[in-house]
Amino acid sequence: MNNGKICVSVCAETADKFIENIQRAAEFADVVELRFDCLNKEVEPEILWTELKKLRQNFRGHLLATFRPKEQGGKRKLSLNERRNFWHDSHVYEFVDWGDFEFDLHKDDWDSYFKAVFRKIFRSHHDFHRVPPNLSEIYESLCNLTNYINPGKDSDVVKIAVQTDDISDTIAVWKLLQKAKKDGKQIIPIAMGEAGKWTRILGLAHGAVMTYASPGEGKETASGQLTAKELIETYRVKELNENTEIYGIVGNPVSHSVSPAMHNAAFKFHNLNAVFIPFQVKNLGEFIKNFIRPETRKVELNFRGFSVTIPHKQAIIEYLDEMDETAKAIGAVNTVKIENGKLYGYNTDAFGFIEPLKSVYGNLAGAKAAVIGAGGAARAVIYALKKEDAEVTIFARNLEKAKYLVEDFQVELKELSKTKDQRPKTDFSDFDILINATPLGTKGELESETPALADEIKNISLCYDLVYNPTVTRFLREANSANVPTLNGLQMLVAQGAAQFKIWTGKDAPVDEMSASGIRKLQS
Ligand code: NAP
């Protein structure tokens, strides 16, 4: 256990919603931040104070008040006078013990008032556009204000929240933790944005006072914020420490990945001091240099391995020290293990694909398999099928792009045809197994699409969709209506993840727990 706290930030326009969200927040929070600037100007304060009074009696944690003006990232336009009146309202300091004051409020007369009235003061600076080049100066000037502490009060906290775009931007923010530790200051450094998510997960383990969370999905007050439930149940952030082994998924995008849910469930099952984190990485070379390689890294995180996803599965190869035979043959790596500073590459997609297939189809020798799509996943699929002596034909929309597969794997290549009105129209009647290795059918824009229709697949013995979200795709519904047995992508996802877990930890993966967590994540 570390000493950090989870602060759930509550922001709503109406009193009813505000109170409802506070009640939800209190379930997981050590601290509830009341974002009073989110409330409509017209909200009748009396309703709020009556409800807050009731809540105060049941909630054992701290309440933190924030009344941030729009130009500093708040929700309302607020004059200095309105802000002064708010902080001098006796209700605020009656119910709330901590206050977050933006840097421009730290003037002598205000400061002594804040110090007298609130038990703990957060001295905050926000930049919603970038990491300011003078981050150290901002830190120093906020620290200088924290030198004097009233007797009977808690130490002041420096809070610096800045927007990051790539993982390399987060380094300067993370380094503030070390600086504050050396200076004996309490700090909450926040790298906002998807790229900074890891700082929200690992901050408490490395000495941050708090990490901010949302009360539920869609209720975030800043980008990259996770829900309090996820921080506690998936990432176990309060149990992590500086020795925690770090794993993660490296790609772009990674925000909807199911892998953190699956792998963290496996770590929990085996009671390992390890965590799996989404790392949104645009520039792979910079990531390897700054976070991984012992000779050059700027951040020390006890990294032990990572999954690699789109668009880095091939690009990662040049940064590896060694690669296993399967990854070499496929020409793509989805798993990296780090041992004694060296990077070892593996590919578990082929195993993840073939295991569920063999368990439902049996012996694949001589089976005629049609693979639709010619991207990274298709390479692993073709490799695995060929190893089992299946006869493989690729169907691709772009033959020019796909011709390398013919050279690399000696397979047949055919065009994926469409009718004039863009409906699928390919004859698959000669095949035993039909595999979708395109993103067609994936949740979102492509959800209603399918690479094949029911009347094209009625002679097939098995349809296998690599797409796992949703678990039942349009392609699989077409197969169902043609009475063709199906296999969905979730089983492959779990099988390739289980193989990764074994590579990293040497332990057998708890497949049922991983699968259940994956399904819960997909349904959330
Ligand atoms: P990729 O490298 O981007 O390749 C996608 C392939 O699909 C390319 O050949 C692409 O053709 C083709 N394609 C895209 N849109 C198409 C369309 N509208 N019509 C016909 N073909 C189309 O992606 P990937 O890594 O191979 O992944 C493919 C799918 O498999 C994804 O949905 C991914 O989520 C899934 N997958 C699942 C698992 C699992 O564990 N279940 C593992 C890996 C991948 P062009 O080259 O012409 O663009």
Give short descriptive properties of this protein.
single chain, 524 residues, eight-stranded parallel β-sheet, binds NADP nicotinamide-adenine-dinucleotide phosphate
Characterise this structure:
By secondary structure, the protein is α/β, with parallel strands linked by helices. 36% of the residues lie in helices and 20% in strands. The strands form 3 sheets. The protein has an 8-stranded parallel β-sheet with strand order 7-6-5-4-3-2-1-8. Helix 1 (15-26) runs parallel beside helix 2 (45-58), helix 13 crosses helix 17 and helix 17 packs across helix 18 (511-523). Bound molecules: NADP nicotinamide-adenine-dinucleotide phosphate. NADP nicotinamide-adenine-dinucleotide phosphate binds at residues 310, 349, 352, 373-378, 396-398, 401, 416, 437-440, 442, 466-468, 489, 492-493, 496.
